[in-house]
Each structure stands twice: as C-alpha cells, then as structure tokens.
Design brief:
Belongs to the peptidase M3 family. 56% of the residues lie in helices and 8% in strands. Helix 1 runs antiparallel to helix 2, helix 1 crosses helix 4 and helix 20 crosses helix 22. The protein contains 25 helices and ten strands.
Length: 678
Amino acid sequence: MSLTPPQSPLQWDHAAQDISRLTQQAIDADRALQDKVAALDPKNCTFESVFVELAFAETKLDAITEPLAFYQNVSPSKELRDASNEAEALVRDYGVESSMRVDVYKAKVAARDNLKKSGQWDKLSSEEQRLVDKMILDGTRAGLALDETSRVKLVELKKELSKTCLDFSKNFNEENGVVTFTLEELKGVPDDVVSGFTKRTENGKDVYDVTYKTPDIFPLFKFAENPNTRQRAQEGYESRLAINVPLLDRAIELRRQISGILGYDTWADYITEVKMIKSGNGIKDFLDDLENKLRPVGMKERETLLAMKKKEHEQKGYPFDGEFYIWDYRYYDRKYIEETLDLDDMLVKEYFPVSVVVPTILQIYQDMLSVKFIEIETSTWHPDVQKFAVWEKGAKDESGFIGYCYLDLFPRTAKYSHAAVWPILPGYDKSDGKRSYPTTAMVANLAKPTPDKPALMRHDDVVTFFHEMGHVFHGLLSQTKFARFHGTSVARDFVEAPSQMLENWCWEPKVLERMSSHYEKKEPLAKDLIEKIIKSRYVNVGLFYLRQLFFAKYDYKVHTDKESSDYTRLWNDLREKISLVKYKVAAPGQGTFGHITGGYDAGYYGYTYSLVFASDMYATVFKGDPLDPKHGSHYRQEILLPGGSREELDSLKAFLGRPPNSDAFLKELFGDNPTSNL
C-alpha cells in the first residue's frame, strides 16, 4: 500500500540570490506582524491577539530562514554557503532588534495582565500558560525593563556578539588545513587509513597530506608510533583555527558587558537562569564535586599509562623525560586497551561496515519506537544525502505521518566537520487545527571506502551515530501545540540526556551482535570480542572525564572571570592541571572550541550533568530489556512527546516514577555510591 504524506518535503533548489531575497521578505513580514501587535490598544491585548499571533509569526519566520541558513553547513557551492551565512547574519541581527522591542513587550505584559484579571488565565492549558510565561521572561532577560540608553547599548553589543559567533562558525566550517608526513613518520597508522591520504611528491620524496577531519587525524593520535609525529599532528590540530582566537576573546568580552548591563553577576548566571542547574555557582559545585572524585582515579590511570610509555621509549630508543603529554593520551589509552583486554580497535572496525551499521541502527530505532522509515525521491543539497518519510509503524493513511528525515553521512570539502542534528522544521498545531510536521537532518562524517576496504566505522563512530539518531527522533516524535516547545527545545543541560541514554544500546551484547557483520566473513562479532568491547567502556574513565571537566571548567571560568586574560595560556595550563596531560607549545586550542560560540557558552557542563539523568533513565527503565517496544512507547510518551512544553524535571519524574538521582551514574563510574552533590 502506498502512503502519501499530507505535507510535501522541502525543496533544496535555491540559487544564492534567492537566499537573501527570501530571508529579507520573511523578516519584513515578521516585522509587519510585530508592528500590528505593538499597535493594539492595551484592552484588546488577549492570548490570541498577542501570544498566539507572535508564536505563529516566529514559527513562520523560522520555517523560511532555518533551511536557508542550513546551506552554509552542507552545500558544495561556496556561493551558496556564503549567501547562507550572510542570510543567517541578517536573521540574527533582526532577532536582536526584535527581542528589544519595548512596544511588543508592553503588549505582552498587557495581555498577561488582562488574562489574570479576567479569569481567562485558569482556562489556558499548561502549555499555553508556559508560552505566556516564557514570552514575558524573554523580554525581561532581553533588558526591556531597562532605560532607553541601556537598551540601545545592548542592541549594539548583541549584534556584534552575533556576528562574532557567526564568523567563528564560518571559519570552523571552512577550515581546510593539512599536516604533512612521510610514510616513515606515519609508522603504526593502519594501511587502509594511509591509503585515504592525499599522496604527492615533495623534494623528490613521497609525502602524505593529512587533513584535520576526524577520520584522517584521529588515527594518527591513536596509532602513530613516533611521538614527534603525534606531537606535530596534535599541535597542528590545536592550532588549525588560530584565526578564531581574537573572535573568541571578543565574544567573551561582549558577554561580560551584556550580562553586566542586564544586572547579572556573570554571563554564567545569566545563561543558567533558564537551565535545570539554575545558577553559575551550581555549575561550580557540580564540576568541583566530580573532579574531586575523579582526580585520584585519573592519577592512578596516568601512572599506568606513563609506565607503558617509559617501557616503549626504552625499547624503541625514543628519549623519555618522565612526562605524559596531550599527544600521548589517545595513543597509550588505545595500547592499554589492546594489551589488557587484547582488544584491537582496527579489528573491531572490520565488523562495522557503514552499509550494515546504518540500516541496522535505523531498524533498531524503528522497532523500539514503533515507526518506519520509507526512502523517498526528492531534491537535496547533495547527491550523497538519503531522504526518508517517517510514519507510524501501522500507518494506513496520512494520519500516521510523522515527518521527514535527511541523513548526510559522508565527509566532503567545506562541509560541517563533526556530527550533529539540525531540527530544520519543528512540528506544531496550525491555526486550522491541522498539524505541521517536523523535518530533521543529521550531518556526520563517517569514513568513506578506501581502495582496499569498504567504508568501516570504529566502535566510537557507531556510538556517535546512535547518539545523533536519538536527537533525530527527539525532533520527529515530539508533539507540542507550539513550535517553540517542539523536540529538542528543552533546557540545554537536559537536551543531551535522551541521546546519552541511548548510547547504552551500543554496549549491549545482543545489540552489538545484531549490528555487526565482518566486511569479508559476513559474521557478527564473536561473544568474546563483544565481552572485551563492553569491558573497555570504563577503562581509563578517570582520564576521559577529567578531559570533559577541563572543557567544562574552561567554559565556566571564561564566563565568570570579571576581566579578560590570556585565554591561550589558560587553555593549556587548565588542561594540564585538570586533565593531567602536559604540553610543550601553548597552542591556541580555544579557537577550535566551537561549542563556546555555538550555543553551549557557560553550558558545556551540561554534557556531564545530563549524563546523571541518562544513567538513571537507562538503569531504571530500559536495562532489563533495552529493545522492548513497551519501554520505547513509555519513552516516547513521557520524554519525547512533551519536548519543552513542561518542566524537564516533570518529564523525568513521569518517566522514572520518582525524582531523578545520581546513584546509577556514580555506580557506572566507581562501582559504588559515594556521597555526592551531583
């Protein structure tokens, strides 16, 4: 039976000149609507005439501009990417202007007051009340209660901050540097990886250009025997975006000024007001508590890896100065796993061909969440992209339609270089009562085939793919009345929890067996190999999380300091202090820290904070039978469906049957439940 979606997929056939024109038209239409709301007599300000009108206008603006802004991350055309980046700058500038409209804010306040006085407030649904509260809070957080001089200054600072962050992001996407080595210098790096490097002749000698994309550079960190090779690769990788250093300096200074004008002690206090953690001090307490628990574990692990380094350097004749460097960490972490567990990362990779893993993971999700993906023919931004219509499992007509999904999985020049999901269109109820359906896109950089082997995934890549698919389904299976609350529009320190919970599937024996198939032998992973993979999960867990804490503490410190400092020196010294790894050259690694300008400012702690919830959710509900569709249905109902339409803590309580706690997380890491502030 052929199913016809009630909504057509997006068309990706824009020319560069279309992008600016369509963006400006959308902005003009939104401005006109805001003018209309602002002109209302206060007594005519109602829920429908103010809050509903503004909510739909914002949704309409986003529906036009979000897909146009997405091109900068994926389009093979530089002209289109540049136009997309410029269009996003227009939208961001307009967003600043729009957020600072006192006349619109006054209409919102009048509408809220009218609702309360008339008794209509109690007749609103909880989601409608939340819309009112959040829209009013937008105004107070934007500084609309301040005097005009302060507001004018705020607009100026916010526009500059927006442009600075956009420039940082553009440099990040456009980065195309390489580091060059001879074959001898690449000793230890697997042949199938080396065969993917660009080979050329320089001064009569064969050399290999290694890009800084993950599938190219990470194998050097893990496998290159020569410490000088790893050092040069690491320092090049850390320095690849030195161009971003002044931009980050400026962004931090602008945030410091903005939070001061708004009356917050620090930018971290401003940011956390709308997070689960609620305050900058809450971040500090959480990170300090976890660091105190992890440091002794990390110190012990470091001593073990340092002893391995000493032994290898003596055997191979490399000088040994008694130090453990940043470029030693991934190499000896990998060797430790190989030696103690007899687990070879490259052997494991042979069991995860992309052609098997991707469809299997899609099938696992479809079975667990009772949905089905149907591949469709429609326009896209690149021929590599897979396109799907997503339906309820038993759909018989258009009422079972869920939305659209795009998978753009392989690396190419000038494409976004990591893995992420874009919620391109949200779902919401239209004014006629019908549904507008969501569209999500996952962008990743899985390995491409080499002359000798098909495209293969490391187990880490499998975990990442499973994680990102979690965001895809959060974007597809949420069902809120207003687009503002759809899908991943939840507190930033909760947004990763559902996907982090789903990573656990990649460590479950029956799931590993199901999604593995050796590229030649066509056999799944053997039980002993599965056991080794599972045991490797918490090997060197102290050093792993101390590295995460370094990122979080750097982010916290730069957003709580009252004065600027040498952020390159801070990057290197703080990493040495927390992550327990030395450096020689103080490389400007903060220029590569895209999270800090991409929405995770004063928010990187959230990756670890949300793991507390992820561990609790998995241990409490899914652990007994991770693939049971009954658990999947409960997860859909209580976590995915509400999106941000209710407090995240309420969703967690409904899912768990009790308030969340940190017992499962601490047990995973330490095997017991030490007293904790987590």
